[in-house]
Records
---
Amino acid sequence: MVNWLIEVSLRNRFLVIAFFVLVGAWGYWALLTTPIDAIPDLSDNQVIVFTDWTGRSPQEVEDQITYPVLRQNFHPRASG
């Protein structure tokens, strides 16, 4: 089968070259006309945490509740 394919290719060199030129041209055309749909988002995942602690300032809530909870639960090396 392989010997037959090589013999036919050698006898019809022009057709083989023309075939590969056409396939290359078709690939180049596809490269130019294929629309780019979206750019992948490679940023880190974001988590929104709503924390309520009556009578405390937003900075205190951030420092004493939200930040420690996020570090404990969503740290990249956290087990769970």
---
Amino acid sequence: MNIQSIIGTDFAPMPIKRILIVDDLKVNFLLVKALLQKWGFETVWAENGFSAIELIESGQFFDAVIMDYNMPEIDGLQATIIIKKIQPELIVISHSTYTDTPLFDRSNAPFDDYLPKPIKSQNLKEILHKYC
């Protein structure tokens, strides 16, 4: 399977927006980055929740954050709680294998939306159209 078969070729570019991708696995970042860049988005990678928090605290602007849920040191839930205290209006989308399982409790989660893994380009595009 090649990357073209995953990201497809049927989408028109979207306006340039800046997205922070938070994932401890570089391969996950690269896949999301490939989709977003194809659609005209600028991407920044944070390989853990602490790095994401530092980027937000530094005043860097992002239109949205795509946040992995299960990461070492600080998970996506805890990182999002802190990020929302710093910048409550920032859109944070949970990106995880857990988002569609009973293990994932959405009732008190601070995420604005949920994107299950493995990623599907149509799902990502629909969610980004809601917010960006």
---
Amino acid sequence: MTWSQVADAAFELNAAELMDEIRPLFRQGIIDPSMTTLAEFEREAKRDRAISMRQHADRFHPITDTAQSISYWG
């Protein structure tokens, strides 16, 4: 797992509490902005946490059939 992946996961959880740690990682080039930019993080951090969490949760659903969920791989 890379720092970019960790940051992307934090973005999905509303990263407001982690912005002091995330900003320097962007500035140092540790996080790849091609996935999510610092500006996107800043906007997300300002959003209402409950609304943000609800919207992100709507995009992710529990896996109930593993074979079906990875069938597009091959």
